[in-house]
Amino acid sequence: MLKISNAVTLADWEIEINPIRAQGAGGQNVNKVSSAIHLRFDIRRSSLPAFYKERLLALSDQRISKDGVIVIKAQSYRTQDQNRDDALARLRDLILAAVKVDKARRPTKPSRAARQRRMDSKSHRGKTKSLRGRVL
């Protein structure tokens, strides 16, 4: 069971985890052991709330297929357990990032004093540069 938040959890049957052989430069361990993890999660069939599903399906992420299936491949670690934990953590992070609501930005403008300080510093720099010329 994967806990997303206090109210939302995913059951084990919703997440399909398959061990596969890791890619990359070989060695005795890589060529023999299926230590990488291939995780598949179907958004539409899941028990996630409708808001979560909408936000995930609207997300433009290369890990989400057109069918609404999240595919995560974890092969960073040497053991299968560590890769499984990594894949589940990445799935959890993806779901949380999709449902995070950004704070609305209120447009602001600089105060009159700040604009005056900016203009004063510009004229001061200009004077400094003009004094760098050749002395006659």
Automatic annotation (TrEMBL):
It catalyses: an N-acyl-L-alpha-aminoacyl-tRNA + H2O = an N-acyl-L-amino acid + a tRNA + H(+). Residues 21-37 form the Prokaryotic-type class I peptide chain release factors domain. PROSITE patterns: RF_PROK_I. Its EC number is 3.1.1.29. GO terms for cellular component: cytoplasm. It comes from the Bacteria. Keywords: Cytoplasm, Hydrolase, Translation regulation. Its main location: cytoplasm. Residues 103-136 are annotated as: Disordered. One of its GO terms (molecular function) is peptidyl-tRNA hydrolase activity. GO terms for biological process: regulation of translation; rescue of stalled ribosome. Associated with 70S ribosomes and polysomes. PANTHER family: PEPTIDYL-TRNA HYDROLASE ARFB. This is Peptidyl-tRNA hydrolase ArfB.
